[in-house]
Amino acid sequence: MGTVATLQLLKVLQSGRKYSGKELSDLLEIPKRNVTEYVKYCRLAGYNIKSKTGKAGYYQLKGDKKW
């Protein structure tokens, strides 16, 4: 697991804005498929990350943790 990249992902998402997978991939300098994997790790840790698939897809951190 890319712990550093996962923490960097959370740091970027803390802005509250919506990011496409490509934007996150470019910002973090990681492959796009890893973005999905790191979002999964964040969700498992309790972070509420909203996402939408498709052409207008995005990731967005909603609040802090679920608990």
Can I get a quick summary?
The protein has 3 helices and 2 strands. With about 70 residues, it is α+β, with helices and mostly antiparallel strands. It has one domain: Orthogonal Bundle (Arc Repressor Mutant, subunit A), CATH 1.10.10.
Note down, in words, how this protein is organized.
It is globular and about 25 Å long. Helices cover 48% and strands 21% of the residues. β1 and β2 (58-65) form a beta hairpin. It has a two-stranded antiparallel sheet with strand order 1-2. The chain has a single domain (3-56), classed as Arc Repressor Mutant, subunit A, CATH 1.10.10. The protein is built from 3 helices and 2 strands, in the order αααββ. The chain has 67 residues and is of the alpha+beta class.
Index terms:
about 70 residues; 3 helices; two-stranded antiparallel sheet; single chain; Arc Repressor Mutant, subunit A; alpha+beta
Describe the protein's topology.
Layout: H1 3-13, H2 21-28, H3 32-44, E1 47-52, E2 58-65
Antiparallel strand pairs: 1-2
Helical coverage, percent range: 40-55%
Lateral arrangement of strands in the main beta sheet: 1-2
Biggest sheet layout:
2 strands, antiparallel
CATH architecture label: Orthogonal Bundle
- From the alpha-carbon coordinates, what is the Rg to the nearest angstrom? 11 Å
Mean pLDDT, as a whole number?
92
Number of helices: 3
Distance between the termini: 23 Å
CATH class: Mainly Alpha
Q: Would you identify the regions where 5 or more consecutive residues have pLDDT less than 50?
A: none
Which outline best applies? Answer: globular
